[in-house]
Amino acid sequence: MSSLPGAAAWEQYAELLAASLRAASSVLVITGAGVSAESGLPTFRGTGGLWDGEPVEAVATPAAFARDPERVWRFYHARRRAVLRAKPNAAHLALAALEARVGHFLLVTQNVDDLHERAGSTALVKLHGNLLEDLCTACSTITPAPPVPPAAGGVPRCTCGGLLRPNVVWFGEWLRQNDLRRLERFLLRSRWSDPRGVALVVGTSGTVSGGYGLVEAARDAGAVVVEVNPESTALSGCCDLCIRARAAEALSKVVARLEQD
Ligand code: OAD
After folding, report:
1. Which terminus of the chain faces fewer neighbouring Cβ atoms within 10 Å, N or C?
2. pLDDT confidence of 1, banded at 50, 70, 90?
3. Mean pLDDT of 73-81
4. For a substitution probing ligand 1, which of 10, 44, 246 has the most ligand atoms within 8 Å of its CB?
5. Single pTM value for the model
């Protein structure tokens, strides 16, 4: 992976991030679609993004599912196929290695793929659900998705007869209470100042996560807030440091520095 222009500058920032991580007793990481981009999974926004091909309101709302469940399933089966083909990249691996080095650590992802888990992350909250699970709309049972998504169309059903849907959070739905409670517990037990904790925001436009107030909460509590993203985002203004680089290259460099200690 080649460096973006301005590599010298971001590499100095990577050193600053490594120094902050070395000192931190609490680390919160928030990831978005950009962390899986180098595994070949498309992001949502912008040209070629998922919402460019299929508008949100046609495939990612309860109303869309009620109107045309087959269309919704076509979209999610294609996403499942892409995730099953993909492999964790150096960014996923670096975040799993970081977890192993920090006492109090939580990775909050908006991604519904399983690449963080496959890389070895365990302290993980999947805020937008899990693409590789089905949820019954009648009995609420959650089951693992079949290992091979069906080639034909159709809408899968639960053993109870109810329609299955992917176990993801759609627009217009609440985040899951369990996830919010875990997040709250983590934040309450975190140490954000003296030594300063770190909130690391990777590969998200902040269009959705910005609304959750997580980054602001960590910053207000005293955390060093660092963004890793080649582009400026809705969250950049809240950050102490913006590393304008791709996640795989930047995070593997940061973690390699930590491992030299
Ligand atoms: P977006 O598509 O909004 O943003 C992806 C971000 O990743 C952009 O800021 C890119 O600049 C950045 N990016 C791209 N390649 C990168 C790389 N190699 N390294 C680092 N960053 C890179 O995706 P999200 O912010 O994740 O929600 O979107 C948030 C939510 O909106 C999603 O979870 C989904 C979507 O609608 C639901 O479906 C509920």
Report:
1. C
2. very low
3. 94
4. 44
5. 0.95
Residue 42 has which token pair? 């498309």
Q: Are the CB atoms for 30 and 200 separated by under 8 Å?
A: yes
pLDDT of residue 3 exceeding 60: no
Rg (C-alpha) for the chain, rounded Å, is 19
| C-alpha distances out from residue 94 to 55, 90, 97, 121, 229, Å | 33, 6, 5, 10, 15
- When pLDDT is averaged across residues 156-167 and rounded to a whole number, the result is 96
How far is ligand 1, taken at its centre, from the CA of residue 248, in Å? 15
Indicate left, alpha or beta for 154 from its phi (over 0: left) and psi (-120 to 50: alpha): left
Cβ-count burial of 158 within 10 angstroms (0-12 exposed, 13-18 middle, 19+ buried)? Answer: middle
Nearest CA to ligand 1 atom 37: 170
Side chain identity at 102, as an amino acid letter? V
Q: Which helix (H) or strand (E) holds 225?
A: strand 224-228
The predicted-structure confidence for 174-223, as pLDDT tens digits, reads as follows 999 999 999 999 999 998 988 899 999 999 999 998 889 999 999 999 99
Handedness of CA 121, 251, 212, 166 (dihedral sign): negative
Residue 36 Cβ contacting ligand 1 at under 6 Å: no
The per-residue DSSP string of 118-151 comes to HHT--SEEETTEEEEEEEETTT--EEEPPSS--S
Which stretches within 172-246 are classed as H helix? 177-189, 214-221
